[in-house]
Specification:
The chain is α/β, with parallel strands linked by helices. It is built from six helices and nine strands. α5 packs across α6 (180-189).
């Protein structure tokens, strides 16, 4: 099967920007108490359900993976970009990272206690998100947890944004601002029930609201 164009361009872009991306976001969670609180909540839900393996999908340089590991979560990471995976392996050598696309995770059915997709879906065209969510639902066990973060839009339709010199590089990269209700509906159709949702206003250099969803596999 031919590789979708958005997959190729996203991988190519992050292969180029990996090092600068990692440096730019290093320590960012220190100034994001709400993000940390959501990660703590996710970790507690996983632990209270008996624990088990968790996958950080679209893990980038492993910063969220490492944070969850610090919360006593049995976590590993996967990313589309080989350069990002190598960056994660260098920065967090104690954890396992591998190359994988959102829609083709190398994980057995119903084997995960939880899955995190922290801004990992923002480069996927909205029409293709149901396939990604179906893959998430495939690998998470019943009553397992999902934590999703993404850039939201205040309209009822997704907005495509061409990023200009992302992370200081001349690469081609499209990001999508997504309507929260549509993401909730797509998750429900994939077999996941949203248990909590939060949308916060943009801060600092952000230009759009930020959405966070906690969901449970049916």
């Amino acid at each position: 099967m031919d590789e979708p164009e958005h997959v190729r361009t996203t991988r190519d872009a992050y292969d180029v920007v990996a090092t600068d991306y990692a440096e730019m976001l290093h320590g960012a969670l220190d100034a994001q108490p709400l993000d940390r609180a959501l990660l703590h909540t996710f970790a507690e839900l996983v632990r209270d359900a008996g624990g088990g393996p968790v996958l950080d999908v679209g893990c980038g340089p492993g910063r969220i993976t490492a944070y969850l590991h610090g919360l006593a979560v049995d976590v590993s990471g996967a990313d589309l970009s080989l350069a990002m995976v190598r960056e994660a392996q260098r920065r967090v050598p104690a954890l396992h990272f591998e190359v994988a696309a959102l829609t083709a995770l190398d994980v057995p059915d119903a084997s995960l206690a939880g899955l995190v997709a922290w801004y990992s879906i923002i480069h996927t065209p909205p029409a293709e998100l149901p396939a990604a969510f179906a893959e998430f639902a495939r690998v998470v066990r019943p009553h397992g947890q999902l934590l999703l973060a993404f850039q939201a839009t205040t309209t009822t339709t997704a907005e495509a944004v061409q990023l200009e010199r992302p992370y200081g590089h001349d690469v081609e990269l499209t990001a999508y601002r997504l309507p929260t209700e549509q993401v909730v509906a797509d998750l429900s159709a994939a077999g996941m029930t949203v248990t909590a949702r939060l949308v916060r206003e943009p801060t600092g250099s952000e230009r759009t609201p930020q959405a966070y969803l906690l969901a449970e596999r049916d």
